[in-house]
Design a protein that fits this description.
By secondary structure, the protein is α/β, with parallel strands linked by helices. It has one domain: Nucleotidyltransferase, domain 5 (2-Layer Sandwich). 30% of the residues lie in helices and 20% in strands. The protein contains 8 helices and 9 strands. The chain has helices at residues 18-25, 30-36, 54-57, 108-116, 139-147, 161-173, 190-198, 218-231; strands spanning 58-59, 65-73, 80-88, 93-101, 131-134, 152-154, 183-186, 201-204, 207-212. It has a 7-stranded mixed β-sheet, with helices on both faces. A two-stranded antiparallel ribbon has the order 8-9. Strand 8 and strand 9 form a beta hairpin. It is globular. The model is unreliable at 40-44 and 235-244 (pLDDT under 50).
């Protein structure tokens, strides 16, 4: 008896428009693209940010910055990572500077060091960052920074946000129609760049999990939480009803 297998891909639905198909395709890369767009059940393996290309995403110059932000991943035994992020007029993000040290407390000494770096007098208005995103699992550190005058805002976090923030960051690495990506790193941010390159999926007894390895990820977490929180209102499930 002959058995025929029929496969219908995402783009075979006649009820949706080409514009909608292309819009959805732009939201996924790597293993998520294979699953959600190509309909393949494939395991996550190897590096997480496979579309991160240091020869393209690591730069020596940046355009004029319209708004500044901080993204904070707290730590003491593990490194504390604070990233200064700039957004240009096109909505592209630049990791401009990094503070990455172990054994540091959120105290007056940290506040003074950030001021010495000029992080409190940014841009032509000589102002502090518009928002300082922080991990809600450590509210006390966020409150200490707030007491010292920083504009602290809880980063978006919920069950499933680890994978969702990975997707958002992968999408930010993709080149747009204008040839630009939406996420870049200044070359001197060496610890952040190294973590982005080394971020990998977890393997348990030879089986790959949809879960990243929790080590050397402090700068990565700061990048992911920034992109995910900022882009939460940017990417919509539907731009319009495709069935009309």
């Amino acid at each position: 008896m002959q058995v025929n297998n029929w496969f219908f891909g995402f783009g075979d639905n006649p009820a949706i428009t080409d514009e909608y198909v292309q819009d959805v395709k732009r939201r996924y890369t790597g293993v998520f693209y294979q699953r959600m767009i190509e309909g393949k059940w494939v395991a996550a393996e190897g590096g997480v940010f496979t579309n991160f290309d240091p020869s393209f995403h690591v730069v020596d110059e940046h355009p004029e910055i319209k708004e500044y932000y901080l993204s904070c991943d707290w730590g003491f035994n593990n490194p504390m990572c604070l990233l200064l992020v700039g957004e240009d007029a096109d909505g592209c993000y630049y990791i401009l500077d990094e503070f990455y040290q172990s054994g540091r407390l959120v105290d007056d000494h940290l506040n003074r060091e950030l001021k010495e770096r000029g992080w409190d007098k940014l841009g032509p208005r000589k102002e502090r960052p518009y928002q300082c995103l922080y991990d809600v699992e450590s509210p006390s550190d966020g409150q200490r920074m707030r007491d010292m005058g920083w504009n602290m805002v809880p980063a978006l976090k919920h069950p499933g946000s680890v994978v969702e923030s990975i997707k958002a960051t992968q999408q930010a690495f993709q080149k747009q129609e204008n040839g630009r990506a939406r996420l870049y790193f200044m070359r001197h941010c060496s610890k952040t760049i190294a973590e982005m390159s080394g971020y990998r999926w977890k393997t348990v007894r030879g089986v790959n999990k949809d879960e990243p390895v929790k080590e050397n990820d402090h700068a990565v977490d700061a990048v992911k939480q920034f992109v995910y929180t900022k882009d939460a209102g940017r990417v919509k499930v539907l731009k319009s009803n495709p069935f009309r």
